Amino acid sequence: MSQQPGSLRAELVGAFGDPIDENPTGIMQEAAFEAAGLNWRYLLLRVTADDLSSAISGLRAMRFRGINLTIPHKVAVLRYLDEVAPDAALIGAVNTVRRSADRLIGENTDGKGFLRSVCEDARVDPSGKRIVFLGAGGAARAMSVELALAGASHITIVNRTQSRGDELVRTLNANTPAKAEFVQWVGDYPVPPEADILVNATSIGLYPNTGDKPPVMMATVGPGLLVCDVIPNPPQTAFLTSAAARGARTLDGLGMLVYQGAIAFKLWTGLEPSIPVMRQALEKVFRT
Ligand SMILES: NC(=O)c1ccc[n+]([C@@H]2O[C@H](COP(=O)([O-])OP(=O)(O)OC[C@H]3O[C@@H](n4cnc5c(N)ncnc54)[C@H](OP(=O)(O)O)[C@@H]3O)[C@@H](O)[C@H]2O)c1
Q1: Which of 8, 37, 45, 98 could join 66 in a cystine, given CB atoms 3.0 to 4.6 angstroms apart?
Q2: Domain residue spans in the chain?
């Protein structure tokens, strides 16, 4: 069969990070490319903090279609981009870059992935809801900004380090319609009875520390609450197990990881990926 010139050339995307070897995103994206019949490759590329500038130049030279950024590049990459999406600018971090002609555009799909998981997996509309985030790091910033922009009425940021929590609360109050407040995290946090959604946005419980749970007064968790965890590995965290035992509905971090990848896939290819294919690919990595 005759082949059009250039048709054997794969389109390239991938991830820059350090460390990067254990990153599962490539397995999920490559499965989705194959299912969609796309000749695309997702490369895990170890790029140190000092080499980010050269790596971005290389990305431009090799005409990558886009890239994911992970530790330590999500904030540092901002200065190398031609444009940053408004929500990513508010979050102050970029986890996905897409190339449009010769321009590199920064996006953040983490919070959007969480929003989609809340809406589609938990079937909860965050509009008008009162939401409590445990943590004020990159994940909490992305999730709280997107839920505030989606209409959450009240957001409580509970964090150990006050300066980080205060900064996020200022961002939310100044730039979104939600009313935000900071609570210093000391001892077991009592969840207010009016809260609708509680989110663990810390790294507590991440493999291999699977027995760890964020300090929360579990007697204040009950059937009226949706309890979410950002940790995708393992998806069923000790925190979610305890919340379910108290009668709360739960949402694991695997959905967020799948949807943030699915949103990046759409930004790069213009196509909707198969969500079941992406989820199954990740489940194989995390559960075997
Ligand atoms: N499912 C997904 O798609 C997805 C996407 C992104 C991230 N994540 C996960 O989200 C987690 C957080 O990531 P991140 O980027 O936000 O990290 P980060 O920027 O380093 O922030 C970590 C947050 O957790 C808090 N924290 C950590 N250990 C704590 C402890 N022992 N007690 C109380 N607070 C503690 C930190 O509080 P201080 O400010 O006081 O230090 C901070 O608020 C990671 O495990 C990551 O794998 C998941």
Answers
A1: 98
A2: 11-108+256-287, 111-252
